[in-house]
Amino acid sequence: MFDQLKFIKEQLAQRGKEISFQQTRHLAMETGVTRMEIGAYNQHWYLASLTAIPIGTTISSDTNVLVVSQGMNPESLHEFTGQLIIELPNEPLEPVFFEFIQILTK
User: Fold this and answer.
1) In whole angstroms, what is the distance from residue 34 CA to residue 32 CA?
2) What pLDDT score was predicted for residue 95?
């Protein structure tokens, strides 16, 4: 099984950074909402799972852009820093849930 936190620590260590705080963030986009913005400045946000995220959803930040497509590995990690924007392709009929790992470094 893929150890997400071990991978994140290794990636940050290669950049000379050490984790000072970490938490899992669960976000929900309610019915009728198609866009969410999060100020993730001086933070690293990792999308922990693609499960149940609609195809065509765009997640972008100052450092990365991800468009969810069919066939993507649901366990792969995607890193975002800076202004984080989540845009759904259509208004959801039920809430859409996102799971991120939020990291602050020393």
Assistant:
1) 6
2) 95
Total count of residues recorded for the chain: 106
How many CA within 13 A on the CB side of residue 5? 8
List, in order, residues 6 or more apart from 15 with CB less than 8 Å away: none
Q: The domain containing residue 37 runs over which residues?
A: 4-105
What domain count does the chain have?
1
- The two tokens of residue 70 are 């069919």
Closest to 91 measured CA to CA, from 57, 44, 59, 43: 57
- Long-range contact list for 10-18, CB < 8 A, 24+ apart? 11/79, 12/44, 12/103, 12/105, 17/105, 17/106, 18/105, 18/106
Q: Residues 28-68: pLDDT tens digits?
A: 999 999 999 999 999 999 999 888 899 999 999 999 999 99
pLDDT value at position 64? 96
